[in-house]
Amino acid sequence: MKIGRWILLALVLGAAGFALYRYRFAKSSADSISTAEAPEIMVPAGTRIKVEVLNATKVRGLARKATFFLRDRGFDVVSMGTSRLESDSTLVLDRSGHPEWAALVAKALNAKVQTRLDSSRYLDVTVLIGRNWRPPALPFYP
């Protein structure tokens, strides 16, 4: 009977130790992911930069991935879609005469900037996602 109690006690202590180990490992792992993978806020406080994202490739889903990427950095992506033209490189178009805003978007996407003012659009920036843009790797959460 005493051997059974010792075995039971060893199992309980082992399970408690394993649970504590998992809790500490998960907490330190989550802390490192949240600090290392946290996106930089690139939009200045109090500024709303309205962005349109267009996929200029035949690769499905790039505009959607770029939308999530830009929204994580504080940009207000108001529309996304597919461009009729295809492009090898990503291009950021300044639509509202704010070249510094277009430069912020271009910096986030590692793209070139061109000014093509268009007052008929309710946008500040149009992004044409080209074949050279690669979405960032997402963390793996099992």
Question: How would you describe this structure in keywords?
Answer:
about 140 residues, alpha/beta, Alpha-Beta Plaits, 2 domains, five-stranded mixed sheet, 5 strands
Quick take:
40% of the residues lie in helices and 18% in strands. With 142 residues, the chain is of the alpha/beta class.
Structure report:
The structure is a single chain. The chain has helices spanning about 1-35, 60-70, 100-110; strands at about 50-55, 75-80, 90-95, 110-115, 125-130. The chain is built from 3 helices and 5 strands, in the order αβαββαββ. With about 140 residues, the protein is α/β, with parallel strands linked by helices. It is elongated and about 85 Å long. The chain has 2 domains: about 1-40; about 50-130, Alpha-Beta Plaits (2-Layer Sandwich), CATH 3.30.70.2390. The two termini are about 40 Å apart. The protein has a 5-stranded mixed sheet, with helices on one face. The longest helix is centred in the first third of the chain and has 35 residues, at about 1-35.
- From the helix content, strand content and strand pairing, which structural class follows? alpha/beta
CATH arch. level architecture of the largest domain: 2-Layer Sandwich
Which CATH first-tier class of the largest domain would you pick?
Alpha Beta
What percentage of the residues does DSSP assign to strands (E)? 15-25%
The helix/strand series, from N terminus to C terminus, equals HEHEEHEE
Strand adjacency order, main sheet: 2-1-5-3-4
How many separate structural domains?
A: 2
Number of helices: 3
Biggest sheet layout: 5 strands, mixed
Which fold name corresponds to the CATH topology of the largest domain? Alpha-Beta Plaits
| Helical coverage, percent range | 40-55%
The separation of the N and C termini measures 42 Å
- Low-confidence stretches are 28-38
* Shape label: elongated
**Average pLDDT:** 83
Count of extended strands: 5
